[in-house]
Write a structure and sequence with these properties.
Chain lengths: ~550, ~300
């Protein structure tokens, strides 16, 4: 039925578009396509528990597709996206989800300085702590809104946005209503000042959320802990960035009214929430410094409190900025912290010094705690790199990372699970053999006495004329720990996680194919993380735009 | 600058305006002053203590299961075998919670939907993975395991270990009324021995149901349309994570003779019109299960459990 509605929506959009196109000549049609496909090869020796999701036992293959089409004519914008998930673990790694249709569609029109959008839309207010509607396919997120949005440009330095909508939920939408308004402006003189203010309101579904879930749960609590849950939560935000010469200071403050949320022990409580963030940047000559601080407590804007208990990332309205470095190297990214909605107190310092063009030093330090969750430190990282260029053809990076990672909190492991302490030296070397060929290699070694133990990682990537690229890598659990040893792996036996990856680019299209073995681990994107099961199999991909 | 100020004022004003419009629509649904049995009805009664017969330690096995989980019937068989080995000493609870692939009712086959919010909450509390079958014996973190949740192959051995424990309490469940509309239960916990200072206990009371016949998938037999489900988790009468057994301003709470008494009035759940699947509540096949357990950051250990088969 959903598919039928989707097709009807698409036909309706085209019918609306045709008369406009006929009057004003043909418009512009463009779009993009992304196709992913995976074949699963069961490997019970992988990681601690082997490959244990349903795709390995039953479905054996999966596919995902997104086709986005935009038609623009005389200020009218028609957007539709066809999504397809077949046996897909993307939205929930423990599930084989099937669904196809057009859950994203909108019609947008510019009238003078006002843009009106009806249907689905993505947007955010400021840094997004209060409201951010966005998509992140890597970890299966799609927080699009469905409703109406108005965007008015008052003058070149001031704009106002307002919306009312419901958050998309797979091929339907959550029942809760979200409304908001945002003003953003700037003053650009000898100094620059950009600033903004936002307000958000979210209304729970009375029948489902309050009568069905919250009221029975609260009545079951002891009398001193009971409270009256409110259907509406309100949030306000103020943010500004001041810049003068080589100096800039950004501040972001937000507060939300009390609402029912689950604490770390999954007990319902009724706190108000707040968040404060500040970022200071300063550079002089060849030296640059950035300091970031953050304090938050119970500041999570959600469609309803029960989505926080879901094993799947669902129902998030706001985006809480991470306070740690976002690593890209394989082993240094292995222990990445997810932003804690219940509260965080963190600091990050990043310093870069480049005495000349051929030498660059960088040091980054971050420290995160959460008084709302535990007295233990949650995360601490020291990350340092030295980049050295040898002539025009050879570039190298030498680095070291030291991490403290609270696995109990970040991965929900058993309360006796020890905190991970790791040290990871790494080196990257890129050689441009000529204008057409280059080769890049990485060597990394992660040393830890916790979790699965030590890992070594090596990678070689050959790129030819920016068209072809072949990557071969291997990750080896060199010092497996007895406590987390897979029972099918003999004590002391080395387990390899090899990957062979091929990419071919032609015009606007890119084809990829890879044989991949991957250990279970946290995958993060901008501080939003989820636990990905081990992977063993073959993946194909295609992206193109037209 | 004036324009900037006007629009900023409008935005901040809307926040202030919204802030002043708090809704109070749920107030009538919340019982703020009502019966709070755990604190209101606790006393020390040495007569009861003298008369009460000692109870042997009983073990609580939580089986996280689903109608589309192929190995779950095998887990259920293992529990039945454990119960037969230790008659009257084991209380089982089949909680239909886990990955939706396993727990969603099968359209065209299933009559009932056994999933509950409380069941999901219990699974989350114990850090269940969602890969079924899985379960817990007395919610105890056994040496050599990686968590409270374990595979079905170790339940028998872990039960043997737990049966050797001695317990400081007795639990009594009395059925005061049970008909098609309402169930009234009285649950009492009596401390026969003192408990170490600093330890805190919680009482959880759940309802389960036997003799539900519906669809189940089995790895060996395929689709079974008339599978008999027993001890299916239906609801939590306390908070799913237990209600605190505490006494304000008391020194040592858990002393010999201490009684906690709690009464529950439970409307029997009816099928709602228009629902795709029935709830299947039948007052004739309900069981009340009361368990006293610990609850700290890393400990949910069940000290003792009692099950009462209600109207038969």
């Amino acid at each position: 039925m959903n598919s039928l509605y989707s097709i009807l929506r698409f036909v309706l959009l085209i019918l609306l578009a045709l008369p406009v196109a006929a009057q004003d000549g043909p418009g512009q049609l463009r779009g993009d396509l992304m196709v992913n496909s995976a074949f699963y090869i069961d490997d019970p020796r992988l990681g601690q528990f082997g490959t244990n999701t349903t795709q390995y036992k039953t479905q054996k293959s999966s596919a995902e597709t997104w086709l986005f089409v935009n038609y623009n004519v005389k200020g009218w914008d028609f957007n539709v996206r066809y999504d397809l998930f077949h046996n897909s673990p993307l939205l929930n790694p423990q599930e084989a989800f099937n669904g196809q249709g057009m859950p994203f569609f909108n019609l947008s029109k510019n009238v003078s300085d006002l843009t009106v959008t009806v249907g689905s839309f993505y947007d955010q207010f400021g840094s997004g702590v209060l409201f951010r509607a966005y998509e992140d396919r890597v970890i299966g997120l799609d927080f699009a809104m469905q409703g109406i949005k108005l965007d008015y440009k008052v003058n070149n330095n001031l704009r106002v946005k307002a919306f009312s909508g419901k958050q998309k939920n797979r091929f339907a939408s959550h029942p809760q209503v979200i409304q908001g308004i945002n003003v953003e402006g700037g003053i650009f003189k000898k100094f620059t000042l950009t600033y903004g203010a936002s307000a958000i309101k979210r209304t729970l579904d009375f029948t489902t959320d309050i009568q069905g879930n919250l009221a029975p749960a609260i009545n079951a609590m002891t009398r001193e802990n009971r409270f009256v849950p409110r259907a509406n939560v309100y949030g306000g935000q103020l943010y500004a960035t001041f810049g003068y010469g080589n100096f800039s200071l950004g501040i972001d403050l937000a507060h939300k009214t009390a609402e029912a949320v689950f604490d770390f022990r999954q007990k319902l409580i009724n706190p108000s929430g707040s968040i404060a963030m500040a970022t200071l940047n300063y550079s002089i000559g060849r030296f640059a410094l950035s300091v970031q601080g953050k304090y938050s407590e119970y500041f999570a804007m959600r469609t309803n409190p029960y989505t926080a208990l879901s094993p799947v990332l669902v129902g998030t309205i706001g985006f809480l900025t991470p306070v740690n470095r976002q690593n890209t190297y394989r082993l240094p990214a292995r222990y990445s912290p997810a932003v804690q909605e219940l509260g965080e107190m963190g600091i990050q310092v990043d310093a870069t010094f480049s005495p000349n063009r051929k030498n660059v030093f960088n040091v980054n330090f971050s420290h995160i705690e959460s008084p709302q969750i535990t007295e233990e430190t949650l995360f601490r990282e020291l990350f340092a790199t030295y980049q050295k260029s040898f002539g025009k053809r050879v570039k190298s990076t030498f680095g070291f990372q030291s991490v403290f990672y609270n696995q109990k909190v970040y991965e929900g492991k058993a309360p006796t699970t020890p905190n991970v302490k790791s040290m990871t030296p790494f080196v990257e070397l890129q050689v441009n053999m000529n204008n057409r060929k280059s080769i890049r290699t990485e060597l990394q070694y992660l040393r830890t006495d916790q979790d699965l133990g030590d890992f070594a990682f090596a990678l070689a990537e050959l790129t030819i004329a920016a068209k072809y690229s072949i990557t071969i890598s291997d990750m080896v659990n060199t010092q497996p720990r007895e406590a987390t040893r897979n029972p099918l792996v003999a004590p002391g036996e080395l387990v390899h996680y090899p990957t062979v990856f091929f990419a071919y680019s032609h015009n606007q299209s890119r084809f990829t194919a890879g044989y991949i073995k991957q250990v279970e681990g946290i995958v993060c994107n901008g501080g939003v993380c989820r636990l990905e099961p081990a992977f063993s199999g073959v993946r194909f991909g295609l992206t193109t735009n037209f | 600058m004036k324009t900037h100020s006007i629009f900023l004022g409008i935005t901040l004003g809307s926040f202030v305006l919204m802030h002043s419009c708090f809704d109070d629509s749920a107030r009538e649904l919340i019982n703020l002053v009502g019966f709070d049995p755990a604190s209101d009805t606790t006393y020390i009664d040495l007569d009861t203590l003298g008369l009460a017969s000692p109870q042997p330690k009983r073990v609580y096995i939580e089986d996280f299961t689903g109608v589309k989980c192929s190995n779950c019937p095998d887990a259920a068989k293992k529990i039945e075998a454990i119960k037969e080995t230790h008659p009257g000493r084991v209380v089982a609870m089949a909680v239909h919670a886990g990955a939706e692939t396993f727990t969603n009712p099968k359209t065209g086959h299933s009559t009932y939907d056994f999933r509950t919010q409380d069941g999901n909450n219990i699974a989350s509390m114990l850090h269940a993975s969602g890969n079924l079958p899985e379960g817990a014996v007395d919610r105890k973190f056994f040496e050599g395991e990686t968590g409270i949740i374990t595979s079905r192959f170790v339940w028998a051995g872990n039960t043997e270990k737990r049966l050797l424990e001695s317990i400081p309490i007795c639990i009594d469940i009395q059925e005061e009324r049970l008909d098609a509309d309402t169930l009234v239960l009285l649950v009492r916990v009596l401390y026969k021995e003192a408990v170490a200072t600093g330890e805190q206990h919680f009482l959880a009371v759940y309802l389960s149901q036997d003799s539900l016949v519906d669809y189940q998938y089995d790895i060996m037999l395929g689709d079974i349309e008339d599978y008999a489900f027993n001890h299916v988790f239906r609801a939590s009468l306390t908070a799913y994570s237990g209600d605190s057994l505490g006494v304000a301003n008391a020194g040592d709470v858990y002393v010999p003779g201490r009684v906690f008494q709690k009464r529950f009035v439970v409307p029997i759940k009816r099928d709602a019109a228009g629902e795709a699947f029935k709830t299947g509540w039948d007052y004739r096949f309900l069981n009340a299960v009361a368990l006293v357990h610990k609850k700290t950051m890393d400990d949910f250990e069940v000290i003792h459990v009692v099950e009462k088969h209600l109207k038969r």
